Amino acid sequence: MNWIKIVSIVSISLQFMSFWFAAPEVLGSEWLKKADAIIRKGIKIIPTFLMFILGAIIGVIIAKTIGEYNLKIIIPLILILITVLIFSKKMEKALDEKISIPLLSKLIINQSFRFSLLKTAALLFTLGFILQIFTIIYS
């Protein structure tokens, strides 16, 4: 019965990802031009989001108990958190220059790229739908 939950989660995740692949084509290049700053700001938040997730994981592990096994997990997580904290501004700048700007310019200019993303979205959505039907039949 556990595998049904896993397959359901995978299928819903595929359908969620399909939306993000389809969004540029559905919304169009005009909307992408208008939302350029918002999208870039969203991509720049990734280091902050990563620090939040790592901090939450560390907090949960510490709240349970601190034993020898947990220290082997906590110490690397804390080192990763400190590293992300130190380099967060550089990471934001690199994400903006290496990912946001090239990706947005490609999405705005290249219609065939947006259409390819739309086809990928259709494939992901269909695969997620088939997995959901599969879980319904076997549950």
Q: Element order, helices and strands?
A: HHHHHH
Number of strands: 0
Mean pLDDT: 84
Indicate the structural class.
Answer: mainly alpha
Q: Can you give the helix content as a percent range? A: over 70%
Low-pLDDT windows of residues:
none
SS element count, helices:
6
> Quick one: overall form?
flat
- Beta-strand percent range: under 5%
Q: What is the radius of gyration computed over CA atoms, rounded to a whole number of angstroms?
A: 20 Å
Largest sheet, in brief, is: none
- Tell me the distance between the termini: 8 Å
Walkthrough of the structure:
The chain has 139 residues and is an all-alpha fold. It is built from six helices and no strands. It has helices at 2-34, 36-44, 46-64, 68-86, 88-109, 111-138. Helix 1 packs across helix 5 (88-109), helix 2 runs antiparallel to helix 5 (88-109) and helix 3 (46-64) packs antiparallel against helix 4.
List the helices and strands and how they pair.
Blueprint: H1 2-34, H2 36-44, H3 46-64, H4 68-86, H5 88-109, H6 111-138
Helix pairs in contact: 1-5, 1-6, 2-5, 3-4
Structure keywords:
mainly alpha, single chain, 139 residues, flat
Précis, in short:
This protein is mainly alpha-helical and 139 residues long.
